[in-house]
Amino acid sequence: MLSTEQEGGSRQTPEATLFQQAQAGDAESLNTLMERHERLVHYAVYHQQLYGMPYEEAVQAGRQGLWRAILGYDYQSGIRFARRLTKSSGWLL
Q: What would the DSSP string read from start to end of the chain?
């Protein structure tokens, strides 16, 4: 028996579906992704020098960066979103 990918179809992960829906304007999918990846914002804020910026202000800036990253993420690239964020520069601020 052949898998869906071997038959020529494409299997999309549930998270890839969320990215697709969020990028198409679905607010619920965007909110779900924001909630799932909120810890990355706090991790980045905690581990980066933010030039004296208050923690809560830095978290808010990080959330804005996360929002932009979600909307610009290529879910078909095969690179995990969290990995893409840690490798890209400038997503936080």
A: ---TTTTT-----HHHHHHHHHHTT-HHHHHHHHHHTHHHHHHHHHHS--TT--HHHHHHHHHHHHHHHHHH--TTS---HHHHHHHSSSS--
pTM: 0.76
| pLDDT tens figures, 9-46 | 457 788 999 999 999 999 999 999 999 999 988 888 88
**∠ CA(74), CA(70), CA(50), 5° rounding?**
120
Angle at CA 27, nearest 5°, toward 22 and 33?
Answer: 55
- Cα within 13 Å of Cα(7), Cβ side: 7
